[in-house]
């Protein structure tokens, strides 16, 4: 476990040529993706998150511990609601309305803690990330598994997914045709985030 986290951190800090600094900030790469998958009474649907921003800081001191547990020192993600695109204008308007875009134009996730002491393989570390997710003005603490690994280009890659019940955030699932077509309450948010210094 320690060796893989150390490898990930060394690869990251190689971009700056040093591992002496305790914290380093990293940049989100353009190839990062995020999408939302849902269901309805007629068919499943997918919306891409085309616009989002992040802030992340890594902690090099965690390399010195036997069971590194917070090599991600801080992380936040912001999604403008109008950055969610299904490819269908009518569906997008339903999504924006359900998410109360006029009052709450952004969705936010702020990391509280990371537990990286769990499952590890030769190529990846699975962490449990706990943070506050704010949707439509309602903030809840959530925990989700996130897998970290070194990508082929030397950047660090975080992947994961989280199933969210819209009702937990007082969001009424979008509907159409006078309510005869309804989305399911649960959606799955999936992401692949790539970072480099």
* CATH architectural designation: Beta Barrel
The CATH topology comes to Lipocalin
* Main beta sheet strand tally, sense and closure: 8 strands, antiparallel, barrel
**Percent helix among the residues?**
10-25%
Roughly how many Å is the radius of gyration? 18 Å
Strand order of the largest sheet: 1-4-5-7-8-9-10-12
Backbone shape: globular
> How many strands appear in the DSSP assignment?
12
Task: Give average pLDDT, whole number.
Answer: 79
Supply the helix-strand structural class: mainly beta
User: Which spans have pLDDT < 50 for at least 5 consecutive residues?
Assistant: 9-22, 63-69
Give the H and E element order: HEEEEEEHEEEEEE
Question: What is the CATH superfamily?
Answer: Lipid/polyisoprenoid-binding, YceI-like
First-residue to last-residue Cα separation = 23 Å
Percent of sequence in beta strands: over 45%
* Count of helical stretches: 2
CATH classification class = Mainly Beta
- Supply the number of structural domains: 1
